[in-house]
Amino acid sequence: MANDSVVLRFSDVTFEYEHGKKLLEEASFSVRSASRITLMGQNGAGKSTIFNMITGDLQPTEGSVFRSPADATVAIARQVMPKEMLDLTIREYFATAFQDTQFKLDKLIQDVFDIVHLSLPIEKKVKELSGGQQARLLLAHALIQNPDLLLLDEPTNNLDQYGIDHLTGFLMTYEKTVLVISHDADFLNAFSDGVLYLDVHTKKVEQYTGDYNDVVEEIKARIERENLQNARMQRQIQEKRAQAEVFAHKGGKLRGVAKRMRGIAEEAEENLVDVRQEDKAIRPFTIPAQEFDIHFHGRMAEIRSVTIVKNHKAKEKAIDVVVRKNMHVLVSGPNGIGKSTLLNKMVMNQSEHVTIPPEVIVGYYQQDFGNLNGEQTAFDALREVMKENDEHKLRSTAAGFLLDGHLLASKIEALSEGQKGLLSFCRLVLMKPGLLILDEPTNHINFRHLPILAEALDEYQGAMIMVSHIPEFVKQVRIDSVIDLEQ
Asked: How far is it, in rounded angstroms, from Cα 135 to Cα 160?
């Protein structure tokens, strides 16, 4: 549990990337040493920005960020592996965690691999690892620095259930200060003792004691109290204004009474509470399925062999899977076994053992958004997948995914990871694919959106092949067949 010393303090912090567009406005909060804090907020609200101000990579526009002591060390496990690290070997990657040469680096790496339950040859290149292995590597890179303040940005993305359980157990016994950004409620509830909630509407940071469930209940009760109070005040305002109208028409001394009644009504209006606004959820949507000629045979994909990786060795395994229209397939197995590799080869047509008819439109949700062009604007990324030139339809569909005009005009590299996820789903809607290939489609997505995404995928009438490590999400989606690579 936390002690009485404060290790981090934000004092009246305002931050804006460009003039007039504030992410934070006079935000203040403090974090006590050895506490385990969850940072919550809507996609794009500025959670990762707060992390970057804690590390010193960004400076506040106004206000101050204090660490105590001033030389307190900070390490961050980011959401995705930086592109400049992909060509490094694992040993070279860990060397970047230190300013000085570490003569026992290999021993330090093996020690931290034990913590994150990872076993890899350290001569292997980072880009050769699976998404789940890279997620553990990001965590290990932060832990090897033994920081006073550990920042974890969506650490469960790409982790299988075993990896999530292992990370949860580690954090429950971790003796230093941890701040975590995550949309995984079960994961957060297991170890959090406090919540910082970044309100996208007020640009403030609200501080709560307890775990995620405690905060949700407290916010719900607060909104109910505020709505009841405002309802009472509104009734009083209406009554006093009605009485003022009656007395005003009677004339004489009653005009003074009418004036007092108006004064009471005006005072009541001033006392109306600004009800806390909930984060917006995306609108319910459907992904239209591609329409085919009546002579199309209905075979959307055929998989005759898969490459399975065990103990760092690849082995071909013959299978016979035919994916037909309106068939939903789940690909399962632990991190590193070859799930993402299979999906990527299907999309890129790089395997002689997988056949997708050329007339089938393939919609791909890539876990690291590598299929998106960071230099492209979000608007152009949507327009390029549409058959028709209908800007109104594009903007209307994008608005349903909380992508407003400002975000549409932004380069994709400037979007948050969560906004890239919503952009990817918006592309799928406008694309009208015949085959959906989804690699961890819940990564980076705000928890409020997940039931809506699950419903859309459940109702999708084209063929779908999906990888997901979130059992609760998978349960909400119709699955007709499972390809278990471990079996």
From this structure: 10
Scanning the structure block, which residue is given the tokens 């299978």?
Answer: 319
Length, in residues, of the chain:
487
- Distance between CA atoms of residues 45 and 189, nearest Å: 22
Specify the pTM: 0.70
Question: What's the one-letter identity of residue 125?
Answer: K
**Token pair recorded at residue 159:** 């982790």
Tokens of 286: 């459907």
Residue 372's pLDDT is 93
Q: Are 28 and 205 in contact (CB under 8 A)?
A: yes
User: How far is 402 from 37, CA to CA, in rounded Å?
Assistant: 27
Q: Strand order in 299-310's β-sheet? A: 313-324, 299-310, 354-355
**pLDDT attached to residue 277:** 52
Cβ–Cβ under 8 Å, residues 156 and 81: no
Q: Which amino acid is at 417?
A: E
User: E strand or H helix at 225, and its extent?
Assistant: helix 212-250
Q: How far apart are CA 32 and CA 7, in angstroms?
A: 5
The residues with which 343 forms a beta bridge, in sequence order, are: none
Q: How confident is the model at residue 368 (pLDDT cuts 50, 70, 90)?
A: confident
Residues 334-364: tens digit of each pLDDT: 888 888 888 988 888 777 888 899 999 999 9
